[in-house]
Amino acid sequence: MDIRISPKENIPIYLQIVNQIKYLVAAGRLAPDDELPPIRKLAEQLLINPNTVARAYRELERDGVLNSRQGAGTRIAAANSPFSEDEKTRILTERADALLVEADQLDVSVQDLIKLIEDRDEVMNAQMKEKKI
Amino acid sequence: MNSPVNEPAIQVEGVTRQFFRKRALDDVSMTVPKGCVFGLLGENGAGKTTLIRHILGAFKAKTGQVRVLGQNPVTNPVDVLGNVGYLSEEREMPTWMRIAELLRFTEAFYPNWDRAYAAELMESFRLDPQAKVRTLSRGERAKTGLILALAHRPDILVLDEPSSGLDVIVRQDILAAIVRTVADEGRTVFFSSHLIDEVERVSDHIAIMANGRVLVSDTLDQIKEDHSRLTIQYKKPLPEAPSIEGAFSCQGQGREWTVICNGQRQKVLAHVLESQAEVVDESQPSLEEIFVARAKAETR
Fold first, then answer.
1. Percent of chain A whose pLDDT exceeds 70
2. Looking at the complex, does the CB of residue B224 fall below 8 Å from at least one CB of chain A?
3. Beta-strand pair B37-41/B188-193
């Protein structure tokens, strides 16, 4: 499981774990029933306090991302939970908000911004095609 | 040792220590709960090592008192030291011994010595039991010292600047040992450091010291919650940092200045109102920002 912690970042460490696991689930890199490392193992791997990992797992369980059953370990919850879509929306909403604030500061209208996104999409698609050939 | 469950691992109350004219500890109080990782932050000369020496009973508290697992470390050294593992910053060890000899020598002092655990640590630290202490690198010396501190499975592990002067790989080994120690049996770790990043990673409780005084001592979450970082925009550029009552630090230039404050937030806001300025950004400061602001305000 690819998780990176940066204490310098101004997000509490437990929340960094929560966000990254949610991201991995939303991106399909963690699938339902995948097992997560035990608390002490992940703590040792990330070199952080085990209580911090425990708190992240508790939070994820409360959000319905994880199931932990005695003896069965901690696993990603079933696929048809509505979480994944919500989470995608949440992640993109954050980015969209930041983009809108910046556009506003630069005095760029929403219409121009949407046009820009469409243009960029075309450019990126063209680049992808080139790479495949 | 049998002691009540809710009794703190370490309790320091009003300890003051004077070395000639310098006050090394000034009315120091802190409580280290059982099962936590307690990080003691401070610059060199802040009083961290002097405090640790009181906890180990090497110094007798002339004012105030120190209790380790409920015992006085000065009058009860056997009980206290038998349950404490200690790694000093200097890591003084007999240089003429081989590591294996040093382990056997140390084992004799501890009835709870766990030989299998010592062997496991030797293996994971990639140390050669036949190597003489004299020939060890700084990192190997630190790891040897850590095994000596851990192998009797102490209730409390005390580390004085465990990673000072070590390269990143050894530092990671030491942090991993700290994490394993608390994860395994809910033991307590008390360690001093000036590396904020490392303290923030593994600690759940933190104390900040400067000039022999404890400026803050609380859980990491609470410390962060108690402090705010406000960016103030003035109508006109200021030639130098404004002096703001209640702010620990004030940095910036021209019209924008950023202050770090704690419960005094209201005073800072009153200043903002009075100078017809406005707060353009408010966020939670990082531990590093809190540490620098508090330590500077103290030593100024």
1. 94
2. yes
3. parallel
